[in-house]
Automatic annotation (TrEMBL):
UniProt-recorded name of the protein: Uncharacterized protein
Domain of life: Bacteria
Organism, scientific name: Paraburkholderia rhynchosiae
Amino acid sequence: MTVEQHLWQALRQIRSADLSPVDRELLRPAFAALDGGQVIAIPDRVVARIRDIAARTPKQ
């Protein structure tokens, strides 16, 4: 997965967040890539959703 560093960090941040089933399914391939799964291209709409969820999630 080729992503900007801040996007990678945002993905890690929201991984354990309380997500809706729809968001969890949408982000499933990206979460799998965090664990060394198949490398994928992330569509712009998914990138936008990652940024939106990360912005709404309290910082730990």
